[in-house]
Amino acid sequence: MPTLPSPDPLPPTEPRRARQLGLGVGHLPTGPHNALTDVPGIRVGHTTLIRPPRVHSGVTAIVPEGVGPDSPLPAGVFAGNGYGKLLGTTQIAELGALETPVLLTSTLSAFRVADALVGWILERPEGAAARSVNPVVGECNDGLLSDIRARPVQEEHVRAALDSASAGPVAEGSVGAGTGMTALGFKAGIGTSSRRVPVEGREVTLGVLVQANFAGTLRVSGRTVAPADVGVPAEASASGPEIGSCMIVTATDAPLDARQLTRLARRSVYALARVGAGYGHGSGDYGLAFGTRPLGTPAGPAVVPDAGLDLLFGAVLDAVEEAVLNALLTATVVTGPYGHTRYPLPPAPLLALLG
């Protein structure tokens, strides 16, 4: 059985993403950063809160350009298992419209984050005339590795994530909303991936970002990978229950309506089965998908016919699978306030196991 030479076997400069290790998923090409930000007009920002051993938490902001109460984007949502606090979903399900950035955080911080998001929107031109705002905030439970009851995420942390959001490469692993997350027996967190997809005679981009924090047994390239198989100490992998969820945010510049985006969101949750998700009673498995083409604009390409969605469905399955692997591979070792430790998925032992 391979053993870890150190708790974190590769220096941060060494390749860790799945594709860099030859573990890219599917045949479609990625965007330039293999990230959600490859979709034009999408920015991502993180605020990471680490005060060891008590606090390992944070917030992640996904900011579509120009989105606001008076300039909503088409969107759809799907709950694979609804044990969670994805705020703002009823209005999205009813109206098919996203009118704020999407924020991700820890379970008990979700409500403070939503309030901070409302304040941020009301101060911006996009919300200058708003008398109603539907903030969209997702969460996962970081109570294994952080003092969740402390609710450490404050308004200034939310604003920092929103204001620092940028295009380009996206930090992954133990950052932002992924700081205290675990999945499949390993340290996990934020992961992202993208695909370029030919649809109806034009190339579009689809990107995903996952906040991975769910139970199950990891599968890579069709093979089951338990922590012990790659040298993760048994005590670290067995201490404490695996509780949590997975939030998946998908964006695309393909011209899709809200109904089609709901179908896309559904496939994003299905994709978790590929990596071994347990879909347990206490897991909130949510998919949110939105398009960057504003609602109510007559100009632009016609909506993709349903018969033309298959490549997008395949793209989201592949991108989510790869994003989860990225979250596991890029994370760092974290020991929480109750003595529980989680290790990332170690690249060298994994490659040796897969042969």
In short:
This protein has 355 residues and is of the alpha+beta class. Helices cover 22% and strands 27% of the residues. The chain has a six-stranded mixed β-sheet with strand order 4-3-14-13-10-9.
Account of the 3D structure:
- The protein has seven helices and 16 strands.
- The strands form five sheets. It has a six-stranded mixed sheet. Strands 1-2-5-6 form a four-stranded mixed sheet, with helices on one face.
- Helix 2 crosses helix 3 and helix 5 packs across helix 6.
- The chain is globular and about 55 Å long.
- The N terminus is likely disordered.
* SSE run: EEEHEEHEHEEEEEEHEHEHEEH
Protein structure class? alpha+beta
Query: If helices are DSSP runs of H or I spanning 4 or more residues, what is the number of helices?
Result: 7
Mean pLDDT: 92
Describe the protein's topology.
Blueprint (H helix, E strand, L loop, with lengths): L41 E10 L3 E10 L8 E10 L6 H7 L1 E2 L3 E5 L3 H13 L13 E5 L14 H10 L17 E2 L2 E2 L2 E10 L2 E12 L4 E3 L2 E3 L8 H5 L5 E9 L5 H13 L12 E9 L18 H21 L3 E2 L5 E2 L4 H8 L1
Parallel strand pairs: 5-6, 13-14
Antiparallel strand pairs: 1-2, 2-5, 3-4, 3-14, 7-8, 9-10, 10-13, 11-12, 15-16
Helix pairs in contact: 2-3, 5-6
